[in-house]
Write a structure and sequence with these properties.
The complex is a heterotrimer of chains A (317), B (295) and C (267).
Chain A: H1 2-23, H2 27-66, H3 72-77, E1 81-82, E2 87-88, H4 91-122, H5 124-140, H6 143-162, H7 169-193, H8 197-205, H9 210-221, H10 223-239, H11 242-248, H12 265-272, H13 281-316
Antiparallel strand pairs in A: 1-2
Helix pairs in contact in A: 2-13, 4-5, 4-7, 4-10, 5-7, 6-7, 6-11, 7-10, 7-11, 8-9, 10-13, 11-12, 12-13
Chain B: H1 2-36, H2 42-46, H3 59-90, H4 95-109, H5 112-126, H6 133-157, H7 161-169, H8 174-203, H9 242-251, H10 258-292
Helix pairs in contact in B: 1-10, 3-6, 3-8, 4-6, 5-6, 6-8, 7-8, 8-10, 9-10
Chain C: E1 11-12, E2 21-32, E3 35-46, E4 50-55, H1 61-68, E5 77-84, E6 87-88, H2 96-102, E7 103-106, H3 117-127, H4 133-146, H5 150-153, H6 166-178, E8 184-188, H7 196-209, E9 214-218, H8 222-228, E10 231-236, E11 239-245, H9 246-251, H10 256-262
Parallel strand pairs in C: 1-11, 4-9, 4-10, 7-8, 8-9
Antiparallel strand pairs in C: 2-3, 2-5, 5-6, 10-11
Helix pairs in contact in C: 3-4, 3-6, 4-6, 6-7
Classes of the chains: A mainly alpha (317), B mainly alpha (295), C alpha/beta (267).
């Protein structure tokens, strides 16, 4: 009896000891608190940056309409841009931006898709060994270098070819074409490579020619990927500032043709923001242009998502 | 018969397209290198710029580019690392995480000029720091964070789950497992990503013209006290980088030899980017061999 | 077509107070989301014995095992009680890192760290504050000897662990676990990725290790279970159907489902 009691007491004491040991915070627990804290803090910074960026640019951008009482419709449709005289029609820049973006995408797409088909279907070996690294390198070339080449080669060439100054939408289109080409190509290559091999093999086994296979099977099943690539290219073109600003001529007037100086949202921002005073109408008007850029960037983003979702649905069916 | 002919024509058209693309690319590289390289000399690389015309050497700009790059990386690598670990390890699969991912996506797709303007608004206008190295470095950080974070998350997630389980089953904390076990395995991919992003940062100009500024005041390279106004390390001095210099010389430059000057500067920039690219590949595969293979 | 067996008809042994137990689960349930994967698991594990958990794939034996050292945290919801040294360790306030130090685990696929053999063993020790060189060296030798790997690797401890063969890697993982000086060692099909010769080596290692540790091993290989275990539990569709001394289980199974499984009718 005595002994059992003692044993029980001893057991109790042991259990108590283990209980404390297993509930006690250790170095590992503390490490995890710290780790959690650090990583939450870091992601918090990024969220804060994005939120304040959206907030600041939006609040600055709408000041034109809320503080200076400019009519939104007049801003979007007005064709005369002279903010220091109170005229802020942004249409010339909007048209300029869309014109160069679409033109560059339209020119670049066939080249990009053709190159991608070559790299994946016609000569995968050369594609991987030679074209792939070159294209990756081109994605990395800084935009000022593209701008400089545009200025040094394309602008004089246009001047020579059609007269005038050589600055304008055509020159900007050319520069952007070269800039977005590697982006669209490399993304198209990825989406072509993602097409299951047996699609191609089945088609070839049925006696289809290579082109029939490519055009009817491969391109068709890679459509959403190619569209995404094009939109990425357009987003890049729409947001590109310096390269365009260097060759477009920066005249804030409605572009009458493709070879006279024009301007885009980005080029106007780059040229103008340093010369205006914070809080004034000319300054606010420029922020409104920045807001359009921001909204367009969100729009491209949403478009990519929608296409991705559609593509998924198609594959699931 | 018809299908075969179409096939032939299509093949020829594609070959022509590829030939012209390759032609354009080679012309680009050849042009910059032939127009620029002959003018690259030691005195050009180290010399001072004429403040008024923009002519002269690119010594200060080159230094500024590297200084900004180093500062940017010092700020953005730790933050992206923490954020990448959050996404790879702590984030649950719920609406909050997908919101965070969307936010990062949005940041990465914003035009760099918008990022630069935001930096300008924040540092130059609101905080009145002025055009400075530090404003530029933070603006570049904003621009660098999303890509780096995604790269780090992908590299970490690519490491097999069994490695995480091994660490946890030994009583290591999640954090210790991630830092001590997973990170070393993911390192090759992360380093490649960092070096590639360094190339992007090095060539970026739009985010800098209104943050780091467009002037490169003469600095005293004998003075390395970051607190001195003339010191190259002073984070509050304006710092025009090489990429900004190329833009500036071409748009407002009064130098009579603007074209050769920017060709030479472009050549230097391209070679730097090439080296970053090459460095990323070599370093990545070297680390990969070290991590995986037997020593 | 799988025969339907009643989940009511079970034969699970219990132990009297004299048997000293390493661990015990009481009414343990496991859920993956809405999927109820483990029902009312009541098992007790005697100290310094090898207990084998057998059953067809998907029977819940790995799920059960992984719950014992809380490796299912964040993956599945585990309810019920898990007793260890008189403490219910399936509680929110419990320090899971401490638990895993005492209840080690070896996985199906060998998963050594991408580090040297030496680092594989000492990494977690150092993280736990053991820094003294002599102690670490001693632990390396002890644990590698314990896992019957010492003779094969003692001359190149700085070699990458990934350069070892699969069997050696798995024994390194065992060594890594026992270097932490645990009480209980959980093994989740440790031989399924190994060749027969490595399997024999691992089995010999385990038989030797039971003198110092309590071992719970999941295996789909019934020969293995009969060769090495003292107790054997049979899992079926998330239920523990029979738990008995291994000889009883294989020579004289009590209920139809176990009889059919042992006879090889399914699984």
């Amino acid at each position: 009896m005595e002994q059992t009691n003692l044993q029980l007491k001893k057991q109790d004491a042991q259990t108590h000891e283990w209980d404390t040991r297993l509930h006690h915070a250790t170095k590992a627990t503390r490490e995890d608190w710290v780790g959690r804290g650090v990583s939450y803090f870091c992601i918090g910074i990024i969220i804060l940056v994005v939120a304040s960026m959206l907030w600041f640019i939006t609040s600055k951008g709408i000041a034109t309409f809320t503080q200076n009482h400019v009519n939104l419709w007049k801003f979007l449709s007005g064709t005369s841009w002279a903010p220091d005289q109170g005229q802020i029609g942004a249409l010339p820049m909007i048209v300029g931006s869309f014109a160069v973006t679409f033109a560059a995408a339209i020119v670049a797409t066939p080249f990009a898709v053709g190159t991608a088909i070559f790299m994946t279907e016609i000569s995968p070996n050369k594609g991987r060994k030679f074209l792939q690294p070159v294209i990756e390198l081109l994605v990395g070339i800084p935009s000022v270098v593209y701008g400089f080449i545009g200025l040094a080669v394309i602008v004089p060439f246009m001047r020579h070819l059609v007269g005038g100054s050589g600055f304008g939408i055509i020159s900007a289109t050319f520069v952007l074409f070269v800039m977005v080409l590697p982006t669209i190509t490399s993304m198209t290559v990825d989406s072509l490579r993602a097409v299951p091999r047996f699609y191609k093999e089945a088609s070839l086994a049925l006696g289809a020619t290579r082109w029939q296979t490519v055009s009817r099977v491969i391109l068709r099943s890679a459509t959403s990927g190619i569209l995404t690539a094009i939109i990425f290219g357009m987003a890049r073109a729409f947001g590109e500032a310096l390269a365009v600003q260097m060759v477009i001529g920066n005249a804030a007037i409605m572009p009458k043709n493709l070879i006279s100086p024009a301007s885009t949202l980005t080029s106007q921002l780059t040229t103008g923001i340093g010369d205006t005073i914070d809080g004034t109408l000319p300054n606010n008007a420029l922020w409104s242009l920045a807001l359009i850029l921001l909204l367009m960037s969100l729009f491209f983003n949403a478009l990519v998502r929608i296409i991705a979702k559609r593509g998924q649905l198609k594959h699931e069916c | 018969m018809n299908a075969k002919r179409t096939d032939l024509i299509a093949t020829i058209v594609i070959d022509l397209i590829v030939a012209s693309v390759v032609g354009i690319l080679f012309f680009l590289l050849a042009y910059i290198l032939t127009a620029g390289l002959p003018h690259v000399s030691w005195s050009f690389l180290t010399g001072a710029t004429d403040a008024f015309s923009g002519a002269g050497g690119i010594g200060v700009q080159l230094f500024n580019s590297f200084y900004l790059l180093v500062l940017t990386m010092l700020i953005s690598v730790p933050i992206s690392l923490g954020a990448g670990i959050y996404l790879a390890e702590y984030a649950k699969d719920n609406w909050r995480t997908s919101l965070i991912r969307s936010a990062i996506e949005v940041l990465s797709s914003l035009p760099s000029v918008v990022v630069g303007l935001f930096g300008f608004l924040l540092f130059v206008v609101k905080f009145k720091i002025g055009f400075s190295v530090i404003s530029g470095a933070i603006a570049l950080t904003f621009f660098n964070l999303p890509l780096l974070t995604r790269n780090i998350e992908e590299s970490l997630s690519a490491v097999s789950r069994s490695q995480r389980e091994a660490g946890l089953s030994l009583g290591l904390s999640k954090w210790k497992t991630e830092i001590g076990i997973i990170l070393p395995v993911a390192l090759p991919g992360i380093v490649t990503g960092i070096v590639l992003s360094a190339g992007r940062v090095f060539g970026e100009a739009a985010a800098l013209i209104y943050t780091a500024g467009q002037s490169a005041p003469v600095t005293n390279f004998a003075d390395w006290n970051p607190m001195d106004a003339a010191s190259p390390l002073n984070p509050f001095r304006p710092a025009e980088t090489l990429a900004v210099h190329i833009w500036k010389v071409n748009t407002e430059g009064l130098a009579s030899n603007a074209a050769t000057l920017s060709a030479a500067a472009s050549a230097v920039l391209i070679i730097a980017v090439l080296l970053f690219n090459l460095g990323a590949r070599l370093l990545g595969s070297y680390l990969y061999r070290r991590v995986t293979a037997s020593k | 077509m799988l025969k339907q067996y009643s989940f009511e008809d079970t034969a699970v042994q219990t132990f009297d107070d004299k048997t000293s137990l390493a661990m015990k689960t009481e009414n343990m349930q496991v859920f993956y989301g809405d999927n109820h994967a483990m029902f009312d698991a009541n098992l007790a594990f005697p100290k310094n014995q090898i207990t084998a958990l057998i059953g067809a794939s998907g029977s819940g034996k790995s799920t059960y095992l992984r719950s014992l050292n809380r490796m299912n945290d964040g993956i599945a919801t585990v309810t019920g009680k898990i007793w260890y040294h008189g403490v219910n360790i399936n509680e929110p306030g419990v320090n899971i890192y401490e638990i895993r130090r005492h209840i080690g685990m070896v996985f199906q696929r060998p998963n050594p760290f991408a580090k040297s053999i030496r680092e594989n063993i000492v990494y977690a020790l150092r993280a736990n504050g053991i820094k003294k060189k002599s102690v670490l060296e001693e632990r390396i030798e002890q644990s590698l000897k314990g896992a019957a790997l010492w003779d094969e690797v003692k001359d190149n401890l700085d070699k990458s662990a990934l350069s070892l063969s699969g069997g050696q890697q798995q024994r390194l993982c065992i060594a890594r676990s026992i270097a932490m000086a645990p009480d209980v060692l959980l093994l989740d099909e440790p031989c399924s990725a190994l060749d027969p010769i490595s399997t024999v080596k691992v089995e010999e290692t385990l038989l030797e290790l039971q003198k110092k540790y309590t071992i719970i091993i999941v295996t789909h290989n019934m020969q293995q279970a009969s060769r090495i275990s003292s107790q054997c539990a049979f899992f079926h569709l998330g239920h523990i159907m029979e738990y008995a001394p291994t000889s009883t289980m294989f020579n004289n199974p009590q209920i139809p489902v176990t009889q059919d499984y042992i006879a090889g009718s399914f699984g």
